[in-house]
Design brief:
By secondary structure, the protein is an alpha/beta fold. It is 34% helix and 23% strand. Strand 3, helix 2 and strand 4 form a beta-alpha-beta unit.
Length: 239
């Protein structure tokens, strides 16, 4: 059985719809909480796939949260050996940092809500994402930080507010600033867990919930197709 490691930072920002796809494809999934796990016992190359999920802290907060440096080291080791790695939101920012790019607070402010991605320069090189973009599926954006594109990366997607929404490094590494993994039901935990952030940003939770209920099922269906295509290409073979 193939092994997947999912590193999370807050419990409610989980694998979402991706979890079911991984299980369907025969992955044994280990969930690891970054701030409490024993990093000395972790073998960076010991998993067929590593997913680094989102969270409400920044890559540049490593003095307050030293485990972030451990995550960057893990990702860097996997990039060096071209081992399948997926980063979502904070995970994508950590991947950018591991690849030598700068991560910093976004000048355009917080991007929280639902909107469709726009094609990047290299979108055609990842046909499954190109299909999702052509369908104009709205995805969830929930971030305030952004990053420079790593020098060797393919630019896959953007929005009008932030240019770097998705990138790939070869076939083995993929980073999403946005969230393809969320479900409408799972987002109920986000509205509570991020209540202070939403209040500070002046976000109407009732409206955000309605957008989630309207767009979540469409995204979940489209994301399932995307995740399957990406796994078939990046981590082929079933056990």
């Amino acid at each position: 059985m193939r092994k997947a490691l999912a590193i999370y930072h807050v419990g409610f920002e989980d694998l979402g719809s991706l979890g079911a796809i991984l299980s369907r494809n025969g992955f044994d999934i280990t969930m690891a909480e970054s701030c409490t796990m024993d990093w000395s016992a972790l073998e960076p190359l010991g998993y067929d796939l590593v997913i680094v999920l989102g969270g409400p802290i920044g890559v540049y907060d490593h003095v307050s949260y030293p485990f972030l440096d451990k995550e960057i080291d893990l990702i860097r080791a996997r990039l060096a050996q071209q081992r399948p790695t997926l980063g979502i939101c904070l995970g994508a920012q950590l991947m950018a940092a591991a690849a030598g790019a700068a991560v910093y607070p976004g000048a355009a402010g917080k991007e929280i809500g639902w909107s469709a991605l726009q094609a990047g320069i290299d979108t055609a090189q990842l046909p499954a994402l190109d299909k999702l973009l052509r369908q104009q599926i709205k995805v969830l954006h929930w971030h305030g930080d952004t990053f420079d594109l790593p020098a060797q990366a393919l630019h896959l997607a953007k929005t009008g507010q932030y240019a770097h929404q998705a990138f790939a490094i070869g076939k083995h590494a993929l980073g999403f600033q946005c969230h393809l993994e969320v479900t409408a039901e799972g987002l109920e935990r986000w509205y509570v867990g991020h209540a202070c952030e939403l209040a500070g940003a002046g976000i109407d939770i009732v409206q955000l919930r309605e957008e989630g209920r309207r767009n979540g099922p469409l995204l979940e269906h489209a994301a399932a197709e995307f995740w399957q295509a990406w796994l078939d290409d990046c981590v082929p073979g079933r056990s």
